[in-house]
Every structure is written in C-alpha cells, then in structure tokens.
Amino acid sequence: MKPNNIITLTAFLTALTQLDEPLPDNIQTQLHDISKALIVDPDNIIGKLDAIAESYPPLDKVYQTELTRIEKTGERTKGLPPLPLPTEPTAELTNAAFNAFSNNNSVSAAKIAVKPNLLQKVRDFIHGRTVND
Fold first, then answer.
1. 11 vs 115: CA distance, rounded Å
2. DSSP character at residue 87
3. Quick one: DSSP state of residue 104?
C-alpha cells in the first residue's frame, strides 16, 4: 500500500470514530464496496475515501482535520530529513477498516474496531517510531 494511502485510511477511520450519527445510506453503500475490494487491491480503492469524505460535509470536516494533524505530527524540525513512510499497513489497521466499512453502520463499527491505542500505534508507525508491544 502506498504510504499516503495508509495516512488516508488512518485519517478516515479516525474521522468515522468522531461522528455521532450514522452515515447516509449512499455513503454506507460506497464503504461496503470499498470493504470488498480492500483485500484485493487497496491502492486502487483507498483514493476513493477522499471523494466519499468530500461528499458528506460532517465527515469531510473531521477527516480534513485528521489529515492535517497526522501530517503536522510527522514534520521534523532542525532541518533533519523526514523519515521514510511505511509501505505496508499494520494488520490491525487493515482489519479495523474492513470491519468498519463492511458493517451496516460504519460509524458505530469504527468505534468498536478502532481500539483506543490503535490510531496512536498507526501514527507512530507512519512516522517511523518503533512501537513496543
């Protein structure tokens, strides 16, 4: 998976966990389609998450905030070169995405599938920090 897709997936899942209402049916249907294709070819479908978020303003607002937060967290200071981004998502991230997107209510499913420390682990992974589990 491309590094930016890992960031996109992380931001999208984080945004889902912050919504209070279920997604509209048309958006939920699109996520079901993504869940089916996620295992086969994740790079070709992850880009669709941007379009899905943009089509639903409450989701897009939180999603854009999360993207910005993840990107700012990764900025390095003192002229040090950035760490290379990972090219493979964690199994936890992929499983959480599949479980959330394939559910009839992705908002509530994301809140269950995304464990409190999962997103921090993924952010650490994105920014090249080792995680001791």
1. 14
2. S
3. S
Q: Per residue in 112-130, pLDDT tens?
A: 887 656 556 666 666 565 5
Angle at 109 between CA 127 and CA 13, to 5 degrees: 25
Cβ 32 vs Cβ 73: under 8 Å: no
Name which of 29, 13, 36, 43 is nearest 109 in CA terms: 13
The residue extents of the domains of the chain are 3-126
Q: Please give the structure tokens belonging to residue 110.
A: 């994301």
Distance from C-alpha of 96 to C-alpha of 117, rounded to nearest angstrom: 12
pTM over 0.90: no
Place of tokens 């994301």: 110
Alpha-carbon span 2 to 39, nearest angstrom: 14
12-23 pLDDT, tens digit each: 999 999 999 999
Tokens 């080792």 found at: 130
